[in-house]
Design goal:
By secondary structure, the protein is of the alpha+beta class. It folds into two domains: 1-52; 57-214, no CATH class. The chain is built from two helices and six strands, in the order αβββββαβ. It has helices at 4-52, 179-202; strands spanning 66-69, 80-87, 90-103, 106-114, 120-127, 213-214. It has a six-stranded mixed β-sheet with strand order 5-4-3-2-1-6. A hairpin with a 2-residue loop joins strand 2 (80-87) and strand 3. It is globular. The N and C termini lie far apart (81 Å).
Length: 216
Amino acid sequence: MNRPDINLAQPAVQLGLFSLIGLGLLALIHAATGERIAANQRAELLQSLEALMPKASFDNDVLADVISIRDERLGTNEPVTVYRARREGQPVAAILTAVAPDGYNGGITLLVALRPDGELAGVRVLEHHETPGLGDLIDASKSGWIRRFEGSSLLNPAAPRWRVKRDGGDFDQFTGATITPRAVVGAIYKALLVFKDRGDELFRVTGPGTQSILQP
């Protein structure tokens, strides 16, 4: 005769085993998905970096040669990662993110590449919420406007000219959308000021993978 308590226990044991198997599968899927997402993010970041600095221009692992800096002029109170491109150990460019907090529809995140002499190697928009057909012309896929900054510096143009033309500066605004380009120009100029003040710190060798929080 079967004991009632044994009959009742069997479904509970089976349910427990199924739960453990399910949790194990979920953990495996999560790990595999996490690795894939991380790899995709790394590839996208490298693609963005190489859009500003051609791969042939540096020979180090730019994603590993990094340092962190904290400076409110970059539009955030959080540490900002700076990627250092080098060739044969010599600095080629420092690439960092800067946020224009005063876009028309919120913050605009920029990727800014600066050469050791303070000249802009280039700028790209990483994220924005600007109006399609108007403010989104800051995106390199929408227009060539953002490429206008290549070769610019604090001296080219001079400080008073780092404005959109409507404000008496050198940079074009968009028809019906002045706020967006004004915000971008301002954020890039502040990034140049940060580099002017702290460029030597940004290229300081700390070893691959090392991150140092630098206070302003």
